[in-house]
# Entry
Amino acid sequence: MTATLPPKTLKPAPQAPPAKRRRPVKNRLVLLGLGIALAATAVIAAGSGQLGVTPLEVLGTITHGFNNWVQSWLDFFTINVTSPFAIGPLPEHARGYETLWAVRFPRVVLAMIVGAALACSGTVMQGVFGNPLAEPAVVGVSSGAAVGASTAIVTGLAGYGNWVVALFAFLGGLLTTLLVYSLSRSKGRTEVVTLVLTGIAVNAFTFAMIAFYTYVADPNAREQLIFWQLGSLNGASWISVGSVAPLLIVGLGMAFAAAKKLDLLSLGERSARHLGVNVERLRMIMIVTVALLVGAGVAFTGIVSFVGLVVPHLIRIIAGPGHKLLLPASALGGALLVLVADFAARTLVPYSDLPLGMLTALIGGPFFFWLLRRTRNEQGGWA
# Structure
């Protein structure tokens, strides 16, 4: 008899160790780098101007201000403790502390809010339209929001509070976004040519409305309307920051909550529906989100162009198309871009304040031409 050998048990082939998850590390580095650059730029911008303040004095002013705030609460609750946060030197100039808190810090904070709002609104519009040319200023949404705010100024409703201007800016941006969305859709997709032509028509109409308001307005309102057309952060205050910040928080929250659905929508409407996305509902919610963000962006600064076009594309090149990273990185990048542009507006020409919208248009205009040409080549022409 021949002995039967037991069957050999096949050992599983050795598997390679799982690859390290490098993308989350890269994502953190991108956000960390943008955050550090934004913080450093904010300190430098706050200390620059006719009254120069060193970065250490700026930081000392922040810590002393926070210390005074904490101490006031301790005194209010009759807690006999001295707040320990007063660290660093104060400005040598007699009015340096008051100038920073009353003028410089509100302007820096408002610049970051406006940049974050406009960049995120551009990111959301590009995700909703599925088009790299979608940007609030290009398609007329920013100017529509400016018309809403101008209506509040000319009719005198702005006298009831700063929140009225922000509300009218939101309503103007919402109506314009709905108009652009309805006119640029054809056979279930967004056409590039229709989108650009719609933006041209909307911008022409809104600028005509602002010109009409300028003609019929009283001198004080006329100055405010000219300010709207140029775009500027001159006159920023803590009141304007407090009026705009809630719109930004709500808008960013709505955008971040829809990040995964925007990723699915980028696969195409049919694929997104198969994966459980209610496409039309998502689009309507994102349209309201864009109106909130644009309303926050132009409520007290006027028309600031091309921020929502330049920043999302640069972030996509660095970090990829995923909205989970793209949205917060665009918010930081937009805040950084507007802060740098406003810093240049205050310091390029001595004793003058250049229009912020002019500087961002000088940056974004050539970028838009390049992107328009690239998009046309990728689609094989539009004829």
